[in-house]
Amino acid sequence: MTSKLLKSLCCVFALSLVGCGGGEVFTAPASSEFAHGNELLSATALTEDASHALVATQSEVCVWDNQLKARLYDCITGQGAEHVELAGFSANKSRFFISNRLSVTLYDTRTGRSIGTWLTGQEIARDIAISALGDTLVIAYRSGKAEVINTRTGDIKSFDIHRLDINSVALSADGQWAFTGSSDKYVKLWSTSDGSIRFEERLATRVNHVTLNKSASLGFAIDSVDDRVFFDLANQKELSEVASYSNFIEFTASQFINQDKWLLTGSPKMKMRLYRVADGELIAEYEAKQQRQRTSVLSVAYDGKQLYSETSDGLLQAWPFDKLSTK
Fold first, then answer.
1. Among residues 125, 58, 132, which one has the least CA distance to residue 88?
2. Is the pLDDT score of 248 beyond 80?
3. Which residues, 6+ apart, have CB-to-CB distance to 27 below 8 Å?
4. Rounded Cα distance, 244 and 255, in Å
5. What is the DSSP string of 206-234?
6. Which of 4, 10, 199, 211 is least crowded, fewest Cβ atoms below 10 Å from its Cβ?
7. Any bridge partners for residue 52, and if so which?
8. Are 53 and 68 in contact, with CB atoms under 8 Å apart?
9. Where are the WD repeats (predicted)?
């Protein structure tokens, strides 16, 4: 019997608030909440520290200062702001992008003015990542291709990275490395300058979601069934695996936090979870408020003091964590 199967059988009998390694899972009610409206959202984005939020309905995109609890400017409307499904902020908060999968537009966060728009042509964008300064965009396509856009010069490079759909892409802070997961079952770390592959690994099934730390030394990937792996990309090896007996876990958002010691994730089932990277243990779990029949956690963030979630209902909630139990 394999060690993976033994771990799974062990976890089946674990109590709901006990991790597979035997440690207690911290949970607590939200410490505060703020609603960004009452409409169902098609996309959201939080800055890494949750100081700003982007919320998109089917007809407009609004950017909020969460500390002032006010919009920065009038909501963006018009063709480019309709049916937005992908959105994100640069780490330095200076820029954000929105996309309806057929085009992507970059904006100045301070003014709300458009910096540039790029059309996908005959391609359909599956996911988009932005560098820390907002000077690099990577668009991942259904065809398995990826485009790298230098937003300052307008230069575009195209690479054939995967054989099938690229379902998720993450980018290093400097924009030099992209981490992608595909329906061809592979995760790949590749250079955005020439498309060369530095690391690749085959998972059991279709890869649905990936995450990359700022230095491209640590990655995470989850497939459609039960592979949820942390990779030491610097040494090109598997580091740990999420300890869970549940199949079909899905992540809508994720972020390495606390000096890459934790992975913060959001899911389509109202859950926000915190995992310890070293051993894959679940160390904290929170349940967002449900205001509709199906509420998803679309964005997550951490400001060094609290964790944050933004749901498809447009609700921003702040969550405490236990420093002792989440070491």
1. 132
2. no
3. 17, 284, 285, 286, 287
4. 19
5. -EEEEEE-TTSSEEEEEESSS-EEEEETT
6. 4
7. 65
8. no
9. 159-200
Q: At 168, is the secondary structure helix, strand, or coil?
A: strand
Q: Where do we find the tokens 């679940």?
A: 282
The whole-number pLDDT of residue 247 equals 66
* Encoded amino acid at 103, one letter: S
User: Mean per-residue pLDDT for 190-204?
Assistant: 98
21, two tokens: 């390694």
Residue 71 tokens, joined: 């919009």
Residue 79 has φ and ψ, to the nearest 5°, of: -60, -40
C-alpha to C-alpha distance for 37 and 2, rounded to whole angstroms: 50
Which tokens belong to 275? 């995992």
Q: Are 86 and 43 in contact (CB under 8 A)?
A: yes
Average pLDDT over residues 294-322: 95
Nearest to 319 by CA among 296, 286, 279: 286
Q: In which element (H, E) is residue 7 found?
A: helix 3-12
pLDDT tens digits, one per residue of 60-105: 999 999 999 999 999 999 988 999 999 999 999 999 999 999 999 9
Six token digits for residue 287: 């349940």
Amino acid (one-letter) located at 130: I
What superfamily does domain 3-319 belong to in CATH?
YVTN repeat-like/Quinoprotein amine dehydrogenase (2.130.10.10)
pLDDT (tens digit per residue) in 139-187 = 999 999 999 999 999 999 999 999 999 999 999 999 999 999 999 999 9
The pLDDT, as a whole number, for residue 80 is 87
